[in-house]
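Dear support,

I submitted the protein below through the web form. The confirmation email said the job was done, but the results page showed an empty box. After a refresh the structure appeared. I'm attaching both so you can tell me whether what I see now is the final result or a partial one.
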Amino acid sequence: MKSRLLACLALISSLAVIRLFGQSAAPAPAAPKLEFAFEAHVTVGAPQEVGVVAGGTRRLIPITGGTFSGPGLKGKILPGGADHQLLQPDGFTQLEARYVLETDEGEKIYVVNRGVRYGAPEVLARLNAGERVDPNLIYFRTAATFEAAAPRLQAMTRAIYVAVGERYPTDVVVRFYRVL
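What the results page shows now:
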């Protein structure tokens, strides 16, 4: 009976400590930080309008080439990819670009880069008309995943990357950051 009473008191004491200090004594993980990975200069062709479909106006932007470079990583962007876009009437655009990078060593990296772009209607109208606009006037953010066969590039395939983009009349600049 005495051991049972002691066990109950220990349980009540433990519950009081949990209630007082929270369920876990471990501190919350730190907020993620970003590490610059590389910058891509992507050349693009003229938009190919599909037209109004369910959900907006569909168009494709052909990726015709380009270059990329960052710490320990440099190469070219192979032609043949495309940026698949769905534009809303208010100018909000959903993006999904798929293309291939080739390092100077000949290694290939398959990229899937999904994101959004929007800004003031008059700024987007100028951008969509092929004019050069200040990239700070447009919110252009993406999240990318990479696939690579090369052993030295496996770390890329096992991390999350976010990017900031800038759209110009004939090219796009995208800066990729690894989430730490």
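Response: this is the final, complete result; the empty box was a page-load delay. The beta strands are 34-44, 48-53, 56-70, 73-77, 81-87, 93-103, 108-119, 138-148, 161-167, 171-179.
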